[in-house]
Design goal:
Layout (H helix, E strand, L loop, with lengths): L8 H25 L15 E3 L5 E5 L8 H13 L6 E5 L16 H28 L7 E3 L2 E3 L1
Parallel strand pairs: 2-3
Antiparallel strand pairs: 1-2, 4-5
Helix pairs in contact: 2-3
Length: about 150
Amino acid sequence: MKKRAGIPRREFLRVTALAGGGALITITLGRCGSSAAGKGESVDANVFVRIAPDNSVTVTVPKSEMGQGVRTTLALLVAEELDADWDRVSVETAPFGARYGSQGTGGSGSVLDTWERLRQSGANMRALLIAEAAQRWGASPNECTTEASSVVH
């Protein structure tokens, strides 16, 4: 029987897993660090919410879904702030780009990292809709409110 030279199979797997994981973390962090939000710059809130003429709402989520309900959670936060009918809300994943801020997904931090700016996007859009409707109706924005994807006076 010949004796094999080299390192044992388990040691080889452990070393390559550590080296490969280190390379993956370096690549991921390098991409995340280049985003506008990571540098303290503002991110355009309007990139997250689109409202179609039929009152359907599309929420663009800048995080990947990895089984923790990120897409649903973030879209629901926007819908609540916007006072949108949940049945008319759809979700899309943002393409990679600095305009969406940090798009890194991992460590269960996606909602924690993103909830405030998406919630603010919904609130800003709601305020814009109320202001526009009030102007068209010749009313004060303070006299208007929203419910189920509609502005009400």
